[in-house]
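Translate sequence into C-alpha cells.
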Amino acid sequence: MSAKPAKRFLKALRQEKLDRPPFWLMRQAGRYLPEYRQTRADAGSFLDLCYNPSLAEEVTLQPLRRYDMDAAILFADILLIPDALGQPLAYKEGEGPVLDPVRSAKELSKLTFDNLHNRLNPVYETVNRLSGSIPSHCSLIGFAGAPWTVATYMVEGRGSKDYVETKKWAYSDPEGFDQLIELLVQATIEYLIKQIEAGAEAVQIFDTWAGVLPDDKFERWVTQPTAKIVTAIRAKYPDFPVIGFPKGVGGNLLEFVEKTGVTAVSLDTSVSLDWAAREIQPIVTVQGNLDPILLVAGGDAMVSRIHHILRKFSGGSHIFNLGHGIIPQTPPENVELLAKIVQDWKNG
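Result follows.
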C-alpha cells in the first residue's frame, strides 16, 4: 500500500487546498467505450471479465488512456461477495444479475466464508497489477457494495423496484435480517482490507439503494454497517481514506457523514449544491454530482452545469464526479469535453 503525497486525488481526500479538483467518473470503464465492448466480448461473460485479472486490468486502464483521470477504480462488481460466499450468481442478457434468493435466517447456512478469498483472489491480483500499471499521478480506488444494497440483491434474487422480499424479511424478523447484514459487514471488511493490501489507495462503499429505507431503519442497516466497516479498516490502516456513497438518502446524508467516519461522501444528482456546500463540505470532502444524463445530452446544458458545480464547491475540498454511473448511451466525446473543462479549471 502506498499513498503518494503528490497525487491530486489523495490531496483532495486530505482536504488540502488545490488549484482544481481531481476528477474520475463512476462506471468510467463501461459499455459506452468501444474498446470495452470488444474486451467484454473477448472475455466471454461479465463474470469471466471480473475474474480475469489481465482483462479486468485492461478495462480499468481504458478510460485513463482516453481522458487522463486523476483516479482509476478497480473493475469488478458489487455482487462478487455473495458469489464468493456461495450464492449462485449469473448475469443474463436483458435481465442483469440473477441469484438464488436467500430469504430467511435459516437459509443463511447456505453461505460460507470457506472459499471467500480463494474465489476473490483474481480481484486482488487485478488490484496488484493496477497498482503498478496506472499512471504515476493517478490514484487507485478499490470498492465494495454496502451491506444493505448487496442484501437487497441477495434476498430479491435480482434487481428490484420495490424491495418487497427484502423489506418483508427485515421488518418481520429484524434480528434474523441483522445476521445477513453482519455476515456482509464481515465479508466486506475482509474484502476491502485485501484490496488495500494489494495496493488500493482509497476505497468507496456503494450503497445504491440506501434511499429506499425509511429514516427509522436507516441507521440500523445503512449507517451502522458502514461505520463498522470504516472502523475495522482504520484499526488496521489508520486514516485510510474511505468514500461513502449512500444514494438517494436526502437529509439523512448529514447523519451518515457524522456517524460513519467516512473521509468523503459521494453526492447523488438530487443533492442540493448549496446545502452540501454549507452542511457537508466543511466536515468531509464532497464528490459529485453531475447528472449522468447530462453527459449523454452534452452541449451547453452539460457545460453550464459542470461550471456551476465547479463554482459551488470551489470553496472547499471537492472531487468532480457524476451523481451515479456513466450509462451506455454516453457519447465518448462528451466525456472528453468534461475532462477538458475540469482539467482547465482554476479555483479562485
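Note: The chain has a mean pLDDT of 96.
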